[in-house]
Amino acid sequence: MTTADILLVEDEPAIQELLAFNIAQCGFRAIKAEDATSAFAHINRALPDLILLDWMLPGATGVEIARKLRADSRTRDIPIIMLTARTDERDKILGLESGADDYITKPFSPRELMARIRAVLRRRAPQMSDETVRVEGIELSPTTHRVSANGQNIELGPTEFRLLHFFMTHIERVYSRAQLLDQVWGDHVFVEERTVDVHIRRLRQALEPSETDKMVQTVRGSGYRFSRT
Ligand code: CA
User: Are 96 and 169 in a shared domain?
Assistant: First the structure.
């Protein structure tokens, strides 16, 4: 199963510890940052699957960070949950307008926050969900790690499995090699782009006997797309 990386941007050590503990309890991985600079240092290395973003931070505020993330095509789609002590309705609207997916007011119950994290991930990052996915004749189960295509069992390596899961939850969209490295490998810096081609080839070979390999399409000059043909 894929573990979601949750970037925790919070300057108060006690709250950060509490959040990191609860995130780990839920089976997610917590990555800690205490301000905009350290948050962007993490993001530049690898895209997190979700960001918990405190509103009041030293230097750039959470709202400014959210706007910056939404303005960049690489980080535009990362789900964001804003944390704040503010309860003013106007502030809430400002938080959501800056691009946050959800909003939670301190003090919050860790259980409620985790439920919100799960809901946002289900909605915004379906490849992080445990639900079985079906597209045309292909069925993929993240819990049992099994794939079948047109009634045949498909044996996949871990990378091909993650790649297919990502494709099946993001169909009909073109992804560049760099985007796939970011989304599937979580590393667009140290992994070479041709690595993507190697795993695409293995995925197609695995799907070939079931004649579903044609769904993995090369888009010349752009990258790859998973399509219902
Ligand atoms: Ca704070």
Answer: no
